[in-house]
């Protein structure tokens, strides 16, 4: 997944496009886009060997601005307002109701003219 993002030039290290084999050092800033947010991660230190997922936070700092997360919440709410999660495509009855509602609005506008 990360390799694909690097190949598509979606990952930068210190402002430069990174290849999958790019070596990362302490104090490097890694920028990438995930879930419609531009994430900024600062590398604090490099572990000597592989570490578990729970220990990764000791070696990095998330510098993503709080406004980006607020923007994501607004996007989620706006999508939820349009159609509730899990309801899927509109049924035939829903579509007919939507069409009828649109026709009612058009006929009301014609009556005003």
From TrEMBL:
Keyword list, A-Z: RNA-binding, Stress response
Basic residues compositional bias, start-end: 81-93
Residue ranges, annotated region (Disordered): 80-100
Keyword Nucleotide-binding annotated: no
Gene3D superfamilies (UniProt xref): RNA-binding S4 domain
Keyword Transport annotated: no
GO molecular function: RNA binding
Domain of life, source organism: Bacteria
PROSITE patterns, per database record: S4
InterPro entries: S4_RNA-bd_sf
Entries under SUPFAM superfamilies matching the protein: Alpha-L RNA-binding motif
Name of the molecule in the record: Heat shock protein Hsp15
Gene source species: Flavobacterium degerlachei
């Amino acid at each position: 997944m990360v390799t694909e993002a690097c190949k598509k030039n979606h990952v930068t290290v210190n402002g430069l496009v990174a290849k999958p084999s790019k070596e990362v050092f302490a104090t490097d800033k890694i920028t990438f886009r995930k879930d419609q947010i531009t994430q900024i991660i600062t590398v604090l230190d490099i572990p000597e060997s592989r570490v578990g997922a729970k220990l990764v936070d000791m070696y990095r700092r998330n510098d993503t601005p709080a406004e980006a997360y607020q923007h994501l919440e607004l996007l989620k709410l706006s999508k939820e307002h349009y159609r509730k999660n899990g309801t899927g495509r509109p049924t035939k009855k829903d579509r007919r109701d939507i069409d009828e509602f649109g026709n009612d609005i058009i006929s009301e506008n014609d009556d005003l003219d």
